[in-house]
Structure formats: C-alpha cells, structure tokens
Design goal:
The chain is of the alpha/beta class. The protein has helices at residues 3-53, 83-103, 108-128; strands at residues 69-71, 141-143, 145-148, 154-156, 159-162, 165-168, 172-181, 183-187, 191-202, 209-213, 216-221, 226-230, 238-242, 246-250, 253-258, 262-266, 269-272, 276-281, 286-288, 291-294, 298-303, 308-310, 313-316, 320-324, 334-336, 340-342, 346-351, 365-374, 379-384, 387-393, 398-404, 413-418, 421-428, 433-438. The protein has 2 domains: 3-128, no CATH class; 144-438. It has a 19-stranded mixed beta sheet that branches. The chain has a 9-stranded mixed beta sheet with strand order 5-6-8-10-13-16-19-22-25, with no helix packed on it. A 4-stranded antiparallel beta sheet has the order 30-29-32-33, with no helix packed on it. A hairpin with a 5-residue loop joins β3 and β4 (154-156). α1 (3-53) runs antiparallel to α2 (83-103), α1 runs parallel beside α3 (108-128) and α2 runs antiparallel to α3 (108-128). The chain is elongated.
C-alpha cells in the first residue's frame, strides 16, 4: 500500500471516529436535558396538584369555563411527548451523517472536509428542527365535582341527590350552578369548597346550605355571578347553617334572605374575606358561636334582632359595611360577647345598642346614643371636624349610631344630627371608643 493510500485510510478512520463521537456526545447531552426537563415538568405538575388541594387563592374566584374543568376520576388527554422525538431525530441524523462521510470520501482532504461539514449539519439540524406541534388540551382545573342544581345532574366523587337535597360527602372543590328548590348539604370530616357559579337555592322546609359536618366549609363567589339563597319551613339556625368554621370569599355577589331564622349562622367561626354580600333576616343577620372576622368585602347586613352577633369575639380588619339591628331594646347593630376589636375597614351602623371596641383596637369608633329613640326611616348623620362622614337611615326603630373609619383619630371633634337637626353639642374623640348621649339641641332664645 503506497503512502497516499495509507493517508487516505487514516483520514477515513479519523472521520468515522469523529462522527460517532459527536453522535454519542449529542445523544448523551440531549438525553440529560430530556431527563432534567421531564423532572421539572413532573415537579411542576405535582406542585400544581398540591396547590389545588391547599388554600391557593390566586384565581380561586375567577370566571369558570366548565369546558376547561377536569373532574377527579375522569380520563383526560395527556400531552404528546415532543422532547423524545427531537432526540431520536438528532441521533438518527448524526449517525446518517457519519456513515455518509465514511462511504463517499474520495481523497484525504476532501474526506476530512466532508466529515466536518456533515457533523456541523447534524448539530445544526438537531438544534433548529421544529418540534412537532403540541396537541395537548388547554390547561384544566381539577375539582372533585360539578353539579347542575337545575337538573340534578352531576359529575364527580362523593355526591348524591335525594329528592330536593344534593348531598356532598367527599372532599375538595365542588362547582354549583343553576336553581333548585331544596338544599345543598355537606356532611364529611374533610375540608370542602363550594364554588357558587350563579345559583338560586330556595328551601321551603329548611336552610338553603347546611353543613352538618366538615373540617372547614369555604363558599367562594365566582367573579361576575349573582347568587341568592332563601330558607323556609320549620326551626333551623339560618339560611346558611354550619356546625363548623364557615368562610365566605370571592368577587361575586351573594344575597341571603333569612325568612325563618338567622341569615348566616355558624356554631363555630364565620370568616368573611371579600365579596358583595347582602343579608336580610328575621333574626340576626350574622350569628356565630365563637368568632366573627371580617377582613374585606362590601356588606349590607340587616337583622330584626341583631345585625351582626358573636357570642365569642368580633374582629373587623377591613371591608366596608352597613349594619342595621332590630327595633327591640338592647338588640344591637354589632354585638360581641367578648372583645370587639377594629383594626381597619369602614363601619356604618344603626340599632338599639352596640358593643363598643376594646382598648386593643388600633382604629377609633364613635357611638352616639339618641334620647329619645328614633323611628325607622329617620336619617341619622355624623359630622367629623365639620365634615359629614355618615348619613344613614334604618328600616327599623333605633337609638344608637356607630361609625368607625380610618379617618377618625383621637383629638377629632364630632357632632350628631337627626334629619339634619343637631343633637347635643360638639364632642371630642378621646380614645378608641368615643361615645356621647345626645338630645335634640334647643337654641337659646335671643334676649
């Protein structure tokens, strides 16, 4: 074999070795990237699933597209794998390039250039070839059940329908839509979320929503929806009755009519985070055995006994609320059996009494007691530093006005009025619980 042939054979072998080495390296790198991406995707999916079971409120009250809701236990279309396809294409192309370089070479320098060119083309193709289109369905939210109250049809776990009663014995999130004559009952030991997506529930024989047992019941008002609840029939606590902690939140509207009992009642705590909520009840608008906490929302609460009553503690942390108690003596707009603290929000209240905020409050409140009491429909108002901050009328007779806003501070002055006529003198806010008993001011006759 002459020298030229030896050089040619050597160069052929070198080109083949270079091609296979590049192929192996590319395959190893791509495989590693695939493993990393797969692990990251799996972790993300696991995280999303965990978040769905926790109290993730990022878009909890966002409008719902039922076509994009996945119900537990139902099969869903899995996304197609695209990374593995890209790896196979890259490896096959690289191997083909190396074989072509070895079998078609004709001279030493030409063979070397061909081998280098094919290797570069292999890398470029693997990097630039577009991945196949992902035909995965839109992102889905997984819930435990979807219930059409009108037809009584449902999908999901832990749901039964017995006459007018829709009973939930599972855990997790349930989406409710439509109208029903009857009630929704929750009876489980787990946490349950009811997402009200435009419902009208009227029960002629009891509460509209009854939580017999649950670790915690959360009612979410879906953004842009109107939801109405009515009770009726025999003895029961309220239109919404819960034996455990009850939380209400969301960007929707809720109207609760307590035709027989309280409007919203809990044997434990009531927590209101937000929402546009109106309650009218023949007893108390809100009634809790342990605690009521309001941190946001717009509330209009009217009760023929008390507006808002907690046998335990009462905390107002935010929100705007108009609260009216009933006409009976000592029935309050706001009543707390224990400490009543105000740290934020705006309260405008009329009733036949009020529990004044305690010393741990960081926001001042003003209570004005009128003598004599006033008839329903009478306008009561309050000026702070000469500027009107409240003008309200109650549907029931009242003798006490209460107001608390972030604008009230110690040292401010206030004056009370009835139908525009001044009652009492000008008073000074001398603490977190300022108060005054007032009578109609009689002008001294001019001498």
């Amino acid at each position: 074999m002459n020298t030229a042939k030896k050089i040619a054979c050597f160069l052929i072998a070198a080109a083949m070795f270079t091609g296979f080495a590049a192929c192996g390296k590319k395959q190893e790198l791509t495989s590693s990237e695939t493993t990393t991406e797969t692990a990251a995707e799996a972790a993300a999916a696991s995280s999303e699933e965990d978040d769905s079971e926790e109290d993730d409120e990022s878009d909890d009250d966002a409008p719902i597209d039922l076509d994009k809701v996945s119900v537990k236990g139902k099969e869903t279309t899995a996304p197609k794998a695209t990374t593995a396809t890209a790896v196979t294409t890259a490896v096959t192309t690289a191997a083909s390039g190396a074989t072509t370089a070895a079998t078609t070479a004709k001279a030493g320098s030409t063979i070397q250039k061909a081998g280098q060119t094919d290797a570069k083309q292999t890398e470029t193709q693997a990097m630039t070839d577009p991945a196949p289109e992902n035909d995965a369905p839109p992102e889905e939210k997984t819930v435990s059940g979807v219930i059409d109250l009108g037809s009584g049809s449902f999908e999901g776990e832990g749901i039964t329908v017995d006459g007018g009663t829709v009973r939930i014995t599972g855990s997790g999130t349930y989406i409710l839509s439509g109208s029903r004559s009857g009630m929704v009952e929750v009876n489980t030991t787990a946490k349950v979320k009811l997402k009200l997506n435009g419902v009208n529930i009227s029960n002629p024989d009891g509460p509209a929503i009854l939580c017999t047992d649950a670790k915690r019941l959360t009612i979410t008002l879906i953004e842009g929806t109107y939801n109405e609840l009515n009770d009726g029939g025999g003895a029961h606590d309220g239109t919404i009755t819960s034996n455990d902690t009850l939380e209400i939140k969301g960007a929707g509207t809720l109207r609760v009519n307590g035709n027989v009992g309280h409007g919203i009642s809990s044997d434990d705590d009531i927590v209101i985070k937000n929402g546009d909520i109106t309650v009218n009840a023949v007893k108390s608008g809100l009634m809790a055995n342990d605690d009521i906490t309001v941190s946001g929302g717009t509330l209009h609460i009217t009760g023929q006994t008390n507006g808002m009553k907690s046998k335990g503690t009462l905390h107002i942390e935010g929100g705007s609320m108009w609260i009216y108690g009933g006409p009976k003596e000592n029935k309050s707009s706001l009543f707390s059996g224990g400490p009543f603290t105000i740290t934020g929000g705006s309260i405008y209240a009329l009733g036949c009494g009020v529990t004044e905020p305690d010393g741990s409050s960081s926001q001042c409140g003003i209570a004005v007691r009128y003598n004599p009491g006033q008839e329903g429909g009478t306008a009561a108002s309050l000026n702070l530093n000469g500027n009107q901050i409240m003008w309200e009328s109650s549907p029931y007779a009242f003798n006490t006005l209460f107001v608390s806003t972030p604008d009230i501070h110690e040292g401010n002055t206030f004056t009370a009025y009835i139908n525009g006529e001044q009652y009492g003198d000008e008073y000074t806010v001398n603490g977190v619980a300022a108060s005054a008993s007032v009578e109609k001011k009689v002008e001294e006759p001019e001498e």
